[in-house]
Design a protein that fits this description.
By secondary structure, the chain is α+β, with helices and mostly antiparallel strands. It has 9 helices and 12 strands. The chain has a single domain, classed as Glutamine Phosphoribosylpyrophosphate, subunit 1, domain 1 (4-Layer Sandwich), CATH 3.60.20.30. The strands form 2 sheets. It has an 8-stranded mixed beta sheet. Bound molecules: aspartic acid (ASP).
């Protein structure tokens, strides 16, 4: 019984060293050279910060938290400060973290907190639950005394929201978004952030943080906090996804990559999962690390910002 669980693992290469971190800063299509440069600088800064934490603490969890927190502070990214606004003009953020022992924590619809990834970690470490949302999440944030931050809305996001609201008012777009074609969506750059890391103990961690899709319905839950959709880790690897959340959820994309990593290195696993994503017109991007420290990066969208540092080598940036 269950002998399939014991089938030989094939085609895996051993990584040169273990300590590795990859970050992504979202997917879509860059609007301008400035947009491109800001994302490049942002992911480089985050990966350097994440890797120095990995060196100091030899903890993939601390490294992922450090890298994601850096991007949550950077208004370029759609997470923490700089998150997109929902239909009501409010920020509601999703985040999740998971490790190779299936410890996981996630939050959805979080308001007025700079570091949603820290709240997700607190759910993982301090509750019996996996995902908190709504009134209970508000209570949790209050009890744990996470500082409230009233500076998360930045001017470029507010202007983006106003322009989209005007489009709805002019009848160019419906309130619930059904009239936006995928091609039109792909012209935007979404800037969600995520990180995956492995330390010298072989501990794998994935984390993702986002403001979601701009103009989303309030109360909408994306793929990011759904374990197996936008974020996943198990003993075979760690994965963070970005892109069109509804499609990513239906494909359980991160879990799919982890499943392929049972047999294949991270890059091949990402490539196979992206073939399926492409077939279903899912605009997305993926980063992954397998249990040997091999990395995988790929996207179906036009652009994706990412960076990695492997075993003390200089950062490689998209
Ligand atoms: N996946 C995120 C969401 O749908 C958005 C993104 O990755 O840009 O909430």
């Amino acid at each position: 019984m269950f002998s399939f669980l014991l089938r030989p693992i094939i085609h895996l290469e051993r990584g040169v060293g273990m300590k590795t971190i990859i970050v992504h800063g979202g997917t879509g299509s860059f609007k301008s050279d400035k947009d491109f440069d800001e994302h490049r600088r942002g992911v480089e800064e985050a990966v350097i910060h994440g890797y120095s934490t990995l060196e100091e603490r030899n903890s993939s969890e601390e490294a992922v938290i450090a890298a994601v927190s850096k991007m949550e502070e950077n208004p370029t990214f759609n997470c923490g400060r700089g998150s997109v606004l929902n239909y009501n003009g409010q920020i509601e953020m999703d985040a999740a973290i998971m490790d190779n022992n299936l410890n996981a924590g996630a939050v959805s619809g979080l308001k007025r907190v700079l570091h949603p990834i820290e709240v997700a970690r607190a759910v993982m470490e301090q509750t019996d639950h996996v995902l908190l949302a709504g009134a209970e999440l508000e209570e949790f944030v209050k009890v744990l005394e996470f500082p409230r931050d009233e500076t998360l809305v930045v001017p470029h996001r507010f202007n983006q929201w106003k322009a989209e609201l005007e489009r709805i008012e002019r009848g160019e777009k419906t309130r619930f978004g059904k009239s936006i074609s995928l091609a039109r969506k792909a012209q935007e750059y979404h800037s969600t952030c995520g990180a995956v890391a492995i330390d010298d103990h072989g501990r794998l961690v994935a984390g993702t943080s986002t403001g979601g899709m701009s103009m989303k319905s309030f109360g909408r839950v994306g793929d990011t906090p759904i374990i197996g959709a936008g974020t996943y880790a198990d003993s075979f690897g760690a994965v963070s996804a970005t892109g069109h959340g509804e499609k990513i959820m239906k494909l359980t994309l991160s879990r799919l990559v982890a499943f392929f990593m049972e047999q294949y290195p991270a890059q091949k696993s990402v490539d196979i999962a992206l073939e399926r994503a492409r077939y279903f017109d899912c605009e997305c991007g993926l980063i992954a690390i397998d249990r040997y420290g091999n990395i995988g990066i790929g996207h179906t969208s036009k652009d994706m910002s990412w960076a990695f540092i492997k075993d003390g080598h200089p950062p490689v940036v998209f």
